[in-house]
Amino acid sequence: MLILLPAMLSSQGPGMPTPKYTDKGRLVRPEGYREWMFVGANLGMGYTEGQQPPKQNYHNIYMQREAYKAYVSTGRFPDKTMLVMEVLSMGTKESINRNGSFEDKKIGIEVALKDESRFPEKWAYFNFIGEGGKPMADSAPFKKEQCWNCHNQHGAKDNVFLQFYPALRDAR
User: Which end of the chain is less congested by CB atoms within 10 angstroms, N or C?
Assistant: First the structure.
């Protein structure tokens, strides 16, 4: 006999994961993001316009499934949207893959967060990669001129680089 519990009856799940903050207002590192919606990847892109980045790293971009669904249906990123950029080193010349590259070791994550009640510009950006690559449990936002200005100037929509994320770009 199969017994359905109330949580099993809902296809919605428990709701969108939302940002958590420390008592000092620092963003707590999001967990479980690999179960979120994968919206795109890139290799070697960085914030060095016109220059070759010093290292070729892979970036995988994830966002909450609920935020993705809201964007698809409305064309807007809902409040509390988090875009997690997982940074991985590039591996080469392994096994039979002598000419290509692959995602190798995890370096860490960075987060773009839309929180309209907390940030005057709506979006803030966080780095969870500590000294020597040690993961940080929480992070303060970058200063506005470090990330927000570039995202605002070059992001295709609402400070988000849609142009680089096929799942978002092609959804509308």
Answer: N
Examine residue 13 and state whether it is found in any structural domain, yes or no.
no
Whether residue 46 lies inside any domain: the answer is yes
Q: In a structure prediction context, what are the per-residue pLDDT tens digits for the chain, which is 172 residues long?
A: 444 333 333 334 469 999 999 999 999 999 999 999 999 999 878 766 666 666 789 999 999 999 999 999 999 999 999 999 999 998 887 777 677 888 889 999 999 999 999 999 999 999 999 998 899 999 999 988 888 888 888 888 999 999 999 999 998 7
Alpha-carbon dihedral of residues 165, 167, 171, 172, nearest 10 degrees?
0
Q: Go through 35-45 and write b for each residue having 16 or more CB atoms within 10 A of its CB, e for each that does not.
A: ebbbbbbeeee
